[in-house]
Amino acid sequence: MEITSTRYVAALAPQLLGLLVTSIIIYALARLPSYYQKIQLWRKYCSSHIKFSREAGQGKYLWLEDPWSKSRNYWLCKHVAIKHVFSRSAIQETDHRAGFDWFHFAGWEIPTTDNRYKKTVRTADSTVHRELAKSKLSSLLDSVRRVGFSEIDRYKTAVGKEGKHVSLHTLMYRLGYNVNCIGIFGPDLDHVKTRVILQNFTEHQHMMFHCFNWPLPLWLTSRVVPGARKTVKARVELFNQLLEWYNAGGVATASSEMQAVVKVFEDAGTSPDIGSKFMNMMMIAFLANTPETLGWLFTHLVQSPKLLEKVRAECDAVGDVEPTAPFLKLTPHLYSALFETCRLYVFTGTPATVVKPTRLPGMGDHLFLPGDILHSMGQSAAFDVDVYGEDAKFWKGHRFVGEGESLLKYDLTFGIGRSPCPGRNFAIAELCLIATRMVQTFDFADPMITERLRFDDPDFIVRKPMPEKTVDIIDLDGKVYRVIHPGNGSDQGPPGMTAANTPACDFACKLTPRE
Ligand code: HEM
């Protein structure tokens, strides 16, 4: 009897195999057009974020779907859909916590789901939010002022009375980094060493973060994919620096905000390596976006002479301004130029997970299903003509002045709704403060594009001139001008999770102290 059934199955095996193969072929053929379309969109995106984002901003594409990911990952392109997903009204439809927990675990090995540490990590998260609340910022901003102004004095001495060409984008990056690193972590964490490591991390991070979506284990991708390997290497180096700093008692000279976060881990009796992983994640949040934004702001401001004149008059009028001053009112053109820079150079994609079948405004009839992961493609939302009008593709520093001020409510730079950036008030105040001081202190002339400084190069060197790219901007007189541009370093490859765009070359100019 047994022999008969075995023979029967053996006789049927070729038919079963044939059926299986045919089903696979039919399945694959049925999906081929949509797969082909996804790859085409993806290829287009990867060849240039800017070009793709412009098309998407004009409404051609509703989303970018990742053809390789294990769950359905959508990068939403329309402003109205992104705003909805992150707003409080979508609370029944999308969940943010899952994405954050996964992101923190996969990116920094923070044990977000391990019951032994879960509560401590949550308390540390809310401590960061509490410590960075607007009402508590004055001591942190005082350190920013002290460190920032002494850095600017150092630049003044270095360029001398006659002035000197400097790699301005890099110098502004370093200014922003030093201010935050020394201001938040205190003087005992090596700000040059950590900056070099963090720049190596951010340079490659988009590849590691993208691997999170692949149907492959992280231990494999982080060893095999070159960008992911480099990011992990930098993460380990930064972790070692932080642990060394902690063990040497560096926290004693850190800001009270940082001490409060460390105390959460100490009070819970957690081993220092868990706290260091958390601080490692915070290094990116605290230190990566602000400096790059400052670099891009000056690249454009220096080349908008009429706007710069206006900004200079505003900055001179405020004189020795308090760090907690209302910059929107006191220096409206500078404030606007800063947000215009963020609009075009900061792209964010912290994911939300769909928990209930839902349709999204601006996304037609598509029904998003539980488990779908939604990212905001901030860059194409920034080019959305429905929001910003036909001139959305230009950097227009005075966009948010006067009547334009109402457009600030569409800003997505710092996230919105349920999980905005807890450091946003601090970031805006410090950026306005430092930029004001720079404009009060220096004249800027003779812009040029040069090879980018290496991360470990000294501050005041300029590398060899590079072929110039150009970009059209709108100056205060409303006219379009063609100006030079260093190119976008992060304008290719898959989308990052959260970062400011990096330049491909350096923007250099002559910096001369004003009389
Ligand atoms: C121009 C500068 C900055 C930009 C554009 C920026 C933007 C963002 C965005 C978009 C998020 C994610 C929000 C979400 O989708 O849930 C975020 C998270 C965060 N930001 Fe900022 N931020 C900046 C500066 C800062 C600064 C200066 C600090 C602290 C001093 C800070 C602290 C944080 C923290 C702690 C988080 C949560 C990070 C996490 O849990 O993964 N940010 N930021």
Task: Describe the strand arrangement of the main beta sheet, using strand numbers.
Answer: 1-2-7-6-3
Q: CATH homologous superfamily of the largest domain? A: Cytochrome P450
Low-confidence stretches: none
What distance lies between the first and last C-alpha atoms, to the nearest angstrom? 105 Å
Bound molecules: protoporphyrin IX containing FE
**CATH C-level of the largest domain:** Mainly Alpha
Name the shape in a single word.
Answer: globular
The pLDDT mean sits at 91
The percentage of residues in β strands lies in 5-15%
CATH architecture of the largest domain: Orthogonal Bundle
What is the number of helical segments per DSSP (H or I, 4+ residues)? 19
CATH-defined fold name of the largest domain: Cytochrome p450
Count of individual beta strands: 13
Which value, in Å, is the CA radius of gyration?
Answer: 25 Å
**Percent of residues in helices:** 40-55%
Main pleated sheet: 5 strands, mixed
State the domain count.
Answer: 2
Which structural class should the secondary elements be placed in?
A: alpha+beta
Family: Belongs to the cytochrome P450 family.
Protein name: Cytochrome P450
Keywords: Heme, Iron, Membrane, Metal-binding, Transmembrane, Transmembrane helix
Organism: Phyllosticta capitalensis
